[in-house]
Design a protein that fits this description.
Blueprint lengths: L16 H13 L2 H18 L6 H26 L7 H26 L5 H21 L4 H22 L2 H55 L3 E5 L10 H7 L3 H4 L12 H11 L4 E7 L11 E8 L10 E7 L1 H15 L9 H14 L5 E9 L2 H8 L1 H22 L7 E6 L2 E8 L2 H16 L3 E3 L2 E3 L3 E8 L6 H17 L5 E3 L2 H18 L7 E10 L5 E12 L3 E3 L1 H11 L2 H17 L6 E5 L2 H4 L4 H12 L6 E5 L2 H4 L2 H13 L3 E7 L7 H5 L4 E4 L1 H5 L5 H16 L3 E4 L5 H10 L3 E2 L8 E2 H4 L36
Parallel strand pairs: 10-11, 13-15, 15-16, 16-17, 17-18, 18-19, 19-20
Antiparallel strand pairs: 1-4, 2-3, 3-4, 5-7, 5-10, 6-7, 8-9, 12-13, 12-20, 12-21, 13-14
Helix pairs in contact: 2-3, 2-5, 3-4, 4-6, 5-6, 5-7, 6-7, 13-14, 14-15, 17-18, 19-21
């Protein structure tokens, strides 16, 4: 049987027709009571209004028919709603249509019969009631469009027939309006039914999709790695799953109804979560820390995403989303952040974090606030690496960092925001802020110098420590980070130049001195290429005969603007910048050529810096210079200081042995100063020992100096080594040295350092020494400072 609903426009599958018809009937049943009440009210108004114009028997018959039809419609609706009439849908639709015929004909026949016999007031009353009935039917019976059409059509036809009997022009116009309005209302009833059917079909499809999604979500919740959550309109958890509860380590009953944000640590991220839920806005990948992780576990982090959903009386869910555990990702990010901002060796902040923090402190500093920057550099750290190896050097730096941190903590001078960092190598940075910053910085620098000077025990070795410190203050010395760092670095350089193991506060004149040093370093790079270096000679005298047996080659720099510059002013700079290597090569070639031009077999002594011994070109330069000059190797003597044996001693001893193999002699200069040790005399068979001028100058005035000089001469004689005393200026000094058995001397008593032409005026020399390319001077090498080259004699 074809359903009565088949005529509707929405395409309905055959298996859904009964379901759709039932939904239409159910929708109409909810409107039956208002429809019946309105019908009875209209009927009552008609009976009362026409009581004097229509015979009472007719009105009674009309009223009884209306009451009967209304009760019948109400009875049908209640029976269907309560399930007492489980008939086929077709039968129920037929029953409502029959009731519509009953009510419609009751009103329509009555209107057609009474209308011509009524007065104007009665006609108006009937017309108004009829239109009320028609309009009410168009709205209240719209889900049953055939019933609505019957109800509307019968009443409209009754009024139309009544108007036709009047026959006036006004009556005919009213008929046309009434028929047009009735037709429009019937059309609207069918349209409203179409829309209703379309909506309930969409709702059915949506409900099926929702059920499918819920099924998939439940499956995901049971087997997925993430968790789903649902919140009610108050932001409380709803429908908590077992897996979600297990992840939190709490029972489901304790979580159900709990406010969602209470699971997380209060912070701006949680505020964003609360705001999104309260304002019903989407939330995307907000990372939050759990308030109470399971016992024994570190803080866990969840990423929360979600969006609001429309809730109904049946569905309490107002917000739904998904949670991912991002703890491992967060820990990895934390490790990367730590590696990027902290030193892996000491665990202190690194240069990047130090610069960032210093810049922030300077930016946030109030006008009256002060800040002190201390740059700390380990003294002689290269010695530790050379003597004990890099693992010991690393352990030494760790011990320094721990002692420095402990000193800052225990001193109580760190101020409000103390910061200590390793800036790289053996350099550290400290920031002190707060009140009385200048006083605290100075006092802490003194404490730190003393604390860091104590010996360290590293891998069974006792290593002497020490630091140099440069201090700069903000805003007194600089208000900007880069300038403050530069000023602290200048003060650190001054502390190193002052003998190390101390601290210096930046002073405005320091930067001028540093600028002067940089200018001198720049000019020194071009000294060899421009022919500005000069070789001076000082005689070496035999004590017994007082004859000149040779000369020591001493270097001078004749600057085109500054004039003659003593070696004390430029040799340390050359060693620090690595320029000593090309300069030393020039000295070797020039000294060899100079000695080869003499008409005697006098010797020449040349100083070697520790930096030169580390150069791979030293031996080739010496061999080439010997070949070019033709000089007898026995006439050449290289002087080294004890620092050569202290730094990288094995490699340096190998170089000295190679010099001996070439027939060259090696002398130990400045014996008795610096790191003097009798073990050095056993390490390498020196040909000569030179006694430092300080001991010679004090002979006759200090018994200790006489004793030291005598002991050195006696020791050297027993070891078969020649002794030479420096700085002999008085005949009495010569007599004492001769009495103690010293073999050679040098000093102003016999001649000061002069250009070679002063000692060999009759020798015609044309010595061309090819300087190394100036480009080689632009490759400075890391150097340890020699104690000999920086102390070349001025006369």
């Amino acid at each position: 049987m074809v359903s009565k609903f088949a005529a509707l426009r929405p395409a309905v599958a055959p298996e859904l027709r009964d379901w759709v018809d039932n939904r239409l009937i159910s929708a109409h049943i909810r409107m039956v009571k208002p429809l019946v009440l309105g019908t009875l009210l209209n009927a009552a108004m008609i009976v009362i209004g026409l009581w004097s114009q229509v015979p009472p028997s007719y009105l009674a018959l009309f009223g009884s028919y209306v009451v009967g039809a209304s009760v019948h419609r109400l009875w049908l609706a209640q029976g269907i709603a309560r399930g007492r009439r489980q008939k086929r849908t077709e039968k129920m639709l037929d029953a409502f249509q029959l009731n519509s015929w009953w009510l419609g004909l009751t009103f329509g026949v009555s209107f057609a019969w009474w209308f011509p016999h009524l007065g104007p007031i009665g006609q108006v009353l009937v017309a108004v009631c009829a239109m009320t009935q028609i309009a009410a039917a168009a709205y209240m019976v719209r889900t049953l469009p055939r019933s609505a059409a019957i109800y509307i059509g019968t009443q409209a036809l009754g009024v139309t027939l009544g108007l036709a009997q009047i026959g006036s022009l006004q009556a005919l116009a009213t008929m046309a309006v009434l028929l047009a309005a009735s037709g429009l209302l019937i059309r609207m009833a069918y349209t409203a039914c179409d829309l209703f059917v379309t909506r309930i079909l969409s709702d059915r499809e949506l409900g099926a999709a929702v059920r499918t999604v819920k099924l998939l979500l439940n499956e995901y919740e049971e087997s997925g790695s993430d968790w789903l959550f649902e919140l009610d309109r108050d932001g409380c958890l709803h429908g908590v799953s077992t897996r979600f509860a297990s992840a939190l380590g709490e029972p489901v009953t304790r979580l159900e109804g709990r406010r969602f944000e209470t699971l997380f640590v209060p912070n701006p991220s949680r505020d964003a979560l609360v705001s999104a839920i309260g304002e019903r806005r989407p939330l995307r990948a907000e990372t939050l820390a759990l308030t109470a992780p399971p016992e024994g576990e570190a803080t866990r982090w969840w990423s929360v995403s979600g969006r609001p959903c429309y809730f109904s009386a049946e569905d309490r869910v107002a917000f739904r989303g998904v949670i991912s555990d991002v703890t491992s990702q967060r820990l990895a990010e934390s490790r990367v952040h730590h590696m990027a901002h902290f030193d892996s060796l000491t665990g202190l902040p690194n240069r990047a974090l130090f610069n960032q923090t210093l810049a922030e402190l300077l930016d946030e500093r109030e006008d009256s606030a002060q800040l002190a920057l201390l740059l700390v550099d380990a003294d002689h750290f290269k010695t530790v690496n050379d003597m004990f190896g890099h693992p010991a050097g690393d352990a030494f730096l760790r011990a320094m960092a721990e002692r420095m941190t402990a000193a800052l903590r225990d001193s109580g001078l760190g101020g409000d925001q103390p910061l200590i960092a390793r800036l790289g190598g053996d350099e550290f940075g400290i920031v002190i802020a707060g009140e009385d910053t200048c006083d605290k910085a100075v006092r802490f620098a003194a404490v730190l110098v003393e604390a860091m000077s104590e010996a360290y025990s590293i891998d069974g070795h006792e290593i002497n420590g020490g630091v140099s410190i440069g201090i700069a203050l903000a805003p007194y010395h600089a208000a900007l980070k880069q300038q403050l760092l530069s000023n602290a670095d200048i003060a650190l350089y001054a502390a190193k130049n002052g003998g190390r193991g101390n601290w210096e506060m930046f002073e405005p004149g320091m930067d001028a001195a540093l600028h002067e040093r940089h200018t001198l370093s720049r000019d020194l790079r071009h000294a060899v290429g421009n022919g500005e270096l000069r070789l001076f000679l000082q005689p070496l005298v035999d004590v017994e005969t007082e004859a000149m047996t040779g000369y020591e080659a001493l270097l001078r720099w004749e600057h085109p603007e500054r004039g003659l510059i003593a070696p004390d002013n430029f040799i340390p700079l050359a060693e620090e910048t690595g320029l000593i290597v090309p300069i030393g090569e020039w000295v070797i070639r020039t000294a060899f050529a100079e000695a080869a031009s003499w008409d005697s077999d006098q010797t020449i002594a040349i100083n070697l810096s520790p930096v030169q011994l580390g150069s791979p070109n030293l031996l080739p330069v010496i061999v080439n210079a010997l070949a070019a000059s033709g000089l007898d190797p026995a006439r050449i003597e290289f002087e080294i200081t004890e620092g050569v044996l202290l730094h990288n001693s094995d490699a340096n001893i190998e170089i000295l042995n190679r010099l001996h193999e070439l027939g060259l002699k090696v002398a130990l200069d400045d014996f008795g100063t610096g790191y003097a040790s009798l073990n050095y005399l056993l390490t390498f068979p020196f040909d000569k020992i030179k006694i430092d001028r300080r001991f010679v100058s004090e002979m006759g005035t200090r018994e200790e100096s006489d004793a030291i000089v005598g002991a050195v001469i006696e020791l050297a004689n027993k070891l078969g080594m020649c002794t030479l005393a420096e700085g002999v200026e008085e005949p009495e000094q010569l007599a004492r040295l001769k009495a103690q058995g010293c073999q050679m001397v040098q000093g102003w008593l016999f001649g000061k350092a002069l250009p070679s032409a002063e000692y060999h005026p009759n020798v015609l020399r044309a010595i061309e020494v090819v300087a190394p390319p100036t480009a080689s001077l632009g490759r400075p090498q890391k150097s340890a400072k020699s104690q000999s080259y920086s102390r070349r004699k001025a006369g």
